[in-house]
Amino acid sequence: MAERGVGDRPEYLTPVPSPETVPDAGLLLGSVARGDEKAFGRLYDLVAPRVYGLVRRVLRDPAQAEEVAQEVLVEVWRTAARWDPDRGSATAWIFMIAHRRAVDRVRSEQAAGDRVARVGAASVDTPYDEVADEVAVRLERQQVRHCLDVLTEVQRQAVTLAFYQGHSYPQVSELLRVPLPTVKSRMRDGLIRLRDCLTPEVAA
Amino acid sequence: MSAPHEKRERNDVHSLIGAYVLDALDDIDRAAFDRHLRDCDVCRLEADELFEVTARLADGAWSVPPPRLRDNVLAEISNTRQLPPAVPPRPRAQDRSRRGLRLVAAAAAVVAAAGAGVAVYQVQDSRVRDAQSRLEAARASEARVRSILGAPDVQTRSGELRSGGRVTVSSSRLQNAGVIMLTADSAPAAGRVYQMWTIQSGAPTSAGALREGQSAAVQVVEGLPAMSNVGITIERAPESPQPTAPLDALVDLA
Predict the structure, then answer these.
(1) What global pTM score does this model have?
(2) From which domain of life does this come (chain B) (predicted)?
């Protein structure tokens, strides 16, 4: 895998080149909450590739991903005043909305029955690497990846099957052939271990 | 990989927190969990913190959207009315640093591991006998834990248990108190318990013992900043007046 890194960082600010440094999502979202459309444009440029990328990763279908990403970004505009900075970062709040919307779409389609076959065939043998080709290589990504490797196999699978592929925990249990309570605890343990790995200063 | 000492899985709603944060719950479970979060500050902190982790996972899924998406979104927002802020904002501790947040969540994890029903496991305390006063003590203790972990000068140190697991000690001079968070991989053999000690000038004082079968605890220790070490031993149940066993962990507070 290509070793690129910090040098590439400014690239994710495209398509609008900004003379400034990376804007702060929290400050922008605060302005958006007060109706600042210009700030929204800048926030869009900052987060849209990740929102779209995440939604696409879960849904796979680019057309659907575009539709859902649009819903998500409009929702960010609409509900910006509901973001509580004390409870978490702006990006975490935005990606939470994005992920939930994407998963809701998966579920409603599963309920409609037309997605099951596609998902069933694609899910188990889609490794993390496959989609990696289309994502920007960033330092963070390498770190996330490194930290995913720190998890046990079941923890890693439980987290990634749910997060990147939108499976419910009973589906994950089915796919991994492990009991439901084990899946629940592996998801939680996996996230906690990821947190400890991603924020090393906590392990003082 | 499941260890032979795989702990009993808990059925309490809190165990769904990972699945909740990963959006792996169905609507009914999700709603139940939302209710759970409304009633439990510490759990909400843990959830918020785990959402930060999933945000990092989202960082990895970067993909260039079609250029028309920007135009479509900007066109739509110019016709979309924004929601007003939620009216009664929940009062929040102003000095809650990110570090404090992480620690509170760590404590929440321990609390949840300590288990079923009781918010904070109260180490054996003869003053607290009946269920009601225990519950009140647990609540008071939870508030104390939060005030210590949220202190601006909180310092955290941790060590591995030789028997497997971790002990984390957070201490605040401003609060003149500390919190010992013990999470062992499993409880000691029958008849044995984890016991916590504070050590000053080489002299150990018991900071409480866990119950038999218990593998996690959150313990507030008043005056902890004056101590030099926190030690953990495995003693004969219910507890020992002096440490008799070799140290399972020793955390240096200096």
Answers:
(1) 0.56
(2) Bacteria
